[in-house]
Design goal:
By secondary structure, the chain is mainly alpha-helical. 49% of the residues lie in helices and 9% in strands.
Amino acid sequence: MRFTRTLQQTLLRAGIDVILQEKFQNAVIKPQSLSRLILESTAPFLAVVGDRNVRNETVSARLNETLVEITPCQFVTVINARWRDALVEQCGCLSDADLVEMSEMELCRTAQKIHPQGMFYICFQIRPNQTLPS
């Protein structure tokens, strides 16, 4: 359980909302059933942590309709890259430097253009000397 909490904190620190679903804790799930559950999920990003993942400090994630075992840092990188690609596709060419220079309010507006239905949750970490835009 400690690894899943660490994973949750890693994702939250990266600005990614996380829902930790613990209803399968201590359950025995056959690998075929687990693969089916993951691949049929409608969540945009999904990671599952099993016993092997805890031992290896990895997550089982769905990437391009395939189940792969990757590190938490790789998972964050994939999510950020897909989000950046969506920004470029929907809002024109934005480099990493452009994204860093954007205010939280500008990022929120840009994200809303991409996902007007609010399907994408975005949270920003505010630096100690920074205030939220009103």
